[in-house]
């Protein structure tokens, strides 16, 4: 089971590397990788289990965060009544289209690999068309918007060596650019 000790932090070069694509059919190792990353998210979102295993909650996890430089990310986005908005393990995810409209989470973003709060608006695209392959090698092309779209962008950033605070305006972190909505 993935624990906090397995999560690499700022300073580890893997976090700034460009991760490699996986090939299909997936090796057992790459299947297991996706499974254990999703398991981390499920456990981390269960208050009792998260406390028991001292896990920081996450709605996404990218393989580079456990020092595996492969283009694999798990995403588990609940909505506030506990149902699931989006859940899947993304293999070789790729953003095909981005809306002109930008978006930022009101409360900013956090990252398991960043042991500090970095305040400010993380400016991202509001709507994306995402291509990815699932564990069975099936191609998916889906449209996401708002919160799930933001989370997927945070994870794909990890595959490209980008961290959330790279998108925060250093001079005025809370400036709201034109054409940008705030997501509560
Ligand atoms: O890369 C994944 N993590 O670092 C897991 C911890 N962060 C989050 O769950 C998180 C929190 C706020 C906004 C976004 Cl977009 C995300 Cl992703
Ligand atoms: Ni992160």
TrEMBL record:
The family database entries (InterPro entries) matched by this protein are listed as:
Peptide_deformylase, Peptide_deformylase_sf
Q: Which organism is it from?
A: Xylocopilactobacillus apis
Reactions catalysed, as given in the entry = N-terminal N-formyl-L-methionyl-[peptide] + H2O = N-terminal L-methionyl-[peptide] + formate
GO terms (BP aspect): translation
Protein name, as recorded: Peptide deformylase
Family label: Belongs to the polypeptide deformylase family.
HAMAP family, alphabetically? Pep_deformylase
Q: Which CDD domains match?
A: Pep_deformylase
How does the cofactor attach, per the note? Binds 1 Fe(2+) ion.
State the EC number(s). 3.5.1.88
Cofactor(s) this protein cannot do without: Fe(2+)
Which residues are involved in binding Fe cation? 111, 154, 158
Which UniProt keywords are listed?
Hydrolase, Iron, Metal-binding, Protein biosynthesis
GO MF entry, a single one: metal ion binding
Role played? Removes the formyl group from the N-terminal Met of newly synthesized proteins. Requires at least a dipeptide for an efficient rate of reaction. N-terminal L-methionine is a prerequisite for activity but the enzyme has broad specificity at other positions.
Q: Where is the active site?
A: 155
């Amino acid at each position: 089971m993935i624990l906090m000790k397995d999560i690499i932090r700022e300073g580890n070069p893997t976090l700034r590397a460009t991760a490699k694509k996986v090939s299909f059919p997936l090796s057992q190792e790459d299947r297991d990788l996706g499974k254990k990353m999703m398991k981390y998210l499920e456990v981390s979102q269960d208050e009792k289990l998260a406390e028991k295993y001292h896990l920081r909650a996450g709605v996404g996890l990218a393989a580079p965060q456990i020092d595996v430089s492969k283009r694999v990310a798990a995403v588990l986005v609940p909505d506030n009544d506990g149902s699931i908005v989006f859940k899947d393990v993304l293999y070789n995810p790729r953003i095909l289209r981005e809306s002109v409209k930008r978006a930022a989470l009101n409360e900013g973003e956090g990252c398991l690999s960043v042991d500090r709060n970095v305040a400010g608006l993380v400016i991202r695209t509001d709507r994306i068309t995402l291509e990815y392959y699932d564990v069975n090698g099936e191609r998916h092309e889906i449209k996401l918007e708002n919160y799930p779209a933001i989370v997927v962008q945070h994870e794909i950033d990890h595959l490209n060596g980008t961290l959330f605070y790279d998108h925060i305006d250093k001079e005025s972190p809370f400036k709201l650019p034109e054409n940008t909505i705030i997501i509560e």
